[in-house]
Amino acid sequence: MLNSFFNWLSNEEPPTKVLEVRSENYISRPIHYRDDSMLLYGPKASSDKRNPKDKYYEIILQKPFTESLHQMYSLYRCENKEESEERFIVFKEKIPVYVRITKDCTVPSLQKLCDILGKNKSWTIAHMVAYFGQSELLNHPDIQKHINDIAIQSGNVRMVQSLISMNCSLDIIDREGNSVYHYAAASNKEIVNAIASKSLNSLNIFNKQGYTPLHMACLANAPDCVRALLLAGADA
């Protein structure tokens, strides 16, 4: 509340609010890092008191050149160099790719992306697609990697059903020996049933910790998943 009051007094926007800006306003700002369409501007050496933004590190996303040569988006502003660099690393690896795939580069969509990545820094593009329920993007090669497990972990039944209808493999085992059933065991019965309707091959396998999907459902205290696994034929 107090921070909001001071922001109002100084006419400064919240540091995480996505803003549409113009390139000419950054001509005199030093570029701290650049990666494709993402830039991290540093503060001006001699800050102009009339422009409070000059004191910040600022993460900028350039709009695709096919749309505009001058429009950009300010994604994050912070006086702390380390925090800005950390946020830049998270953003640069995901936001440009996501924008290229979805072809959605607007303030509202970027705000959602920045907010969710601010809370989940380790998320991949596939995590975001699963979270936003964008099943129409599942065929994109940048999304296919690990999408099965992510969709199941997110509890997104519609996404899982879409994957099944596309004949995505349900028999992949990860490095820890977990199958799709191990992940589904802590999700919901609808996902277990959807997977069971397609393949039962990995229903009773043990992971490297010695647990079957049924064990995982019990450990997760998920009685609906336990019942669904038993009805599907789980016996270990």
From TrEMBL:
ANK repeat copies, ranges: 209-236
One of the GO BP terms on file: positive regulation of ceramide biosynthetic process
A GO cellular component entry from the record: mitochondrion
GO molecular function: calcium-independent phospholipase A2 activity; long-chain fatty acyl-CoA hydrolase activity
Keywords: ANK repeat, Hydrolase
Listed Pfam families: Ank_2 (PF12796)
Record flagged with keyword Transmembrane: no
InterPro entries given in the database record: Ankyrin_rpt, Ankyrin_rpt-contain_sf, PLPL9
Keyword Hydrolase carried by entry: yes
PANTHER family: 85_88 KDA CALCIUM-INDEPENDENT PHOSPHOLIPASE A2, CALCIUM-INDEPENDENT PHOSPHOLIPASE A2
Protein name: Uncharacterized protein
Organism: Leptidea sinapis
